[in-house]
Every structure is written in C-alpha cells, then in structure tokens.
Amino acid sequence: MSQKYRSPFLNEARNAIRLRHYSIGTEKSYVDWIKRFIRFNGKKHPAEMGEKEVVSFLAKSVVLRMCKDTPPEGMTYKLGEDFVGEKSPARLQNSKGHGK
Question: 75-76 and 84-85 as β-strands: parallel, antiparallel, unpaired?
Fold first, then answer.
C-alpha cells in the first residue's frame, strides 16, 4: 500500500484502516485522533504508552470539549485542574433532571 505519512506507525495504522474498507473520512478522523494522542503524550511512541496515557488523553479531551461552551452555572475550570464549584458533578447531574 502507498505511504502517505512520514511516520511508519501512522502508515501502519492507515493500512490497517484501509484493509478494513473504512471510508476515507473515517480514516482521516482516526489518523487525526492518533496524531492528537501522540502529541498530547509528548510524541512518545504508542508502544511505550498504556492505559494511564489513554485515560488521561480521553479525560482531557472530554473536559476541553465540555469547556468549549459556557461551563454549567456555579462551576469554573482552569486548564490542567479539576472542575471546582458549589456543586459536585453528581449533584449537578441530578439538579438538571438527568440520571433520575
């Protein structure tokens, strides 16, 4: 298969995606997520990382996605820190009528 990326790892991932006949859009999305994951972890090779790095990346991605819009009332967020506010996340969820 053709080589598109300078990284042998990304080319291997791309080839695996292509072998599964995923769409080009899905391939681009998957490769973008892989690149973000690698950059987030200081450009370490994925073989050197484990569950800790994955959980950290996903947690930060969720928080950043949530913070794109205005945070819920009574909550503030500082990059690299946990949410702080008058209510815990569980109480916020219940106060908005979710999780009942």
Answer: antiparallel
Q: Which tens digit of pLDDT belongs to each residue from 12-63? A: 999 999 999 999 999 999 999 999 999 999 999 988 999 999 889 888 887 7
Q: Break the chain into its structural domains and give their ranges.
A: 1-69, 70-100
The H or E element that residue 92 is part of is helix 89-95
Residues 37 and 57 sit within 8 Å (Cβ to Cβ): yes
What are the tokens at 59?
């947690």
pTM: 0.59
Instruction: Compute and round to an integer the Cα radius of gyration of the chain.
Output: 18
In the block, residue with structure tokens 């950043």:
64
pLDDT of res. 31 = 92
Architecture of the domain defined by 1-69: Orthogonal Bundle (1.10)
What's the distance, CA 18 to chain centroid? Answer: 22
